[in-house]
Amino acid sequence: MKRIVAAKMPFITNSDSTVTLDGYTAQLATQTVPNSGYIEYFEVRKYRRGVLVRFPHPNNPNYIPEYIDEIKLYEGVWRSYSLGQS
User: Fold this and answer.
1) Which is nearest to 73 in space by CA: 56, 55, 48?
2) pTM tops 0.85
3) pLDDT tens digits along 29-70
4) For the CA atoms of the chain, what is the radius of gyration?
5) I need a labelling partner for 27 at 20 to 30 A (CA). Which of 11, 36, 44, 61 fits?
6) Residue 8: which of 48, 44, 38, 31 has the closest Cα?
7) Quick one: DSSP state of residue 60?
8) Are 57 and 65 in contact (CB under 8 A)?
9) Residue 24 · residue 39 · CB < 8 Å
10) Among 18, 44, 45, 15, which residue's Cα sits nearest to residue 29?
11) 77 to each of 6, 20, 46, 66, 70, how far by Cα in Å?
12) Shortest CA distance to 74 belongs to which of 40, 51, 55?
């Protein structure tokens, strides 16, 4: 991830609401910055069937808040995603 940040790679927003970075495509529920060079503070965390990329809140841009597992949110999003795959 630090290599990607240092390279200031562009985030490519696709017409299907996915984002591509360095050859990897993901569905995001938020807006992205123009390129990876904008990301100074972040945390990558393994989470269930994938990963979480965590970053600071705009009101406190130099601090990543304590992690809280939002299990009901995860279950709802996963159920919604699974229904869309049928």
Assistant:
1) 48
2) no
3) 666 677 777 778 888 888 887 778 888 888 898 999 999 888
4) 14
5) 61
6) 38
7) S
8) yes
9) no
10) 18
11) 32, 21, 17, 21, 11
12) 51
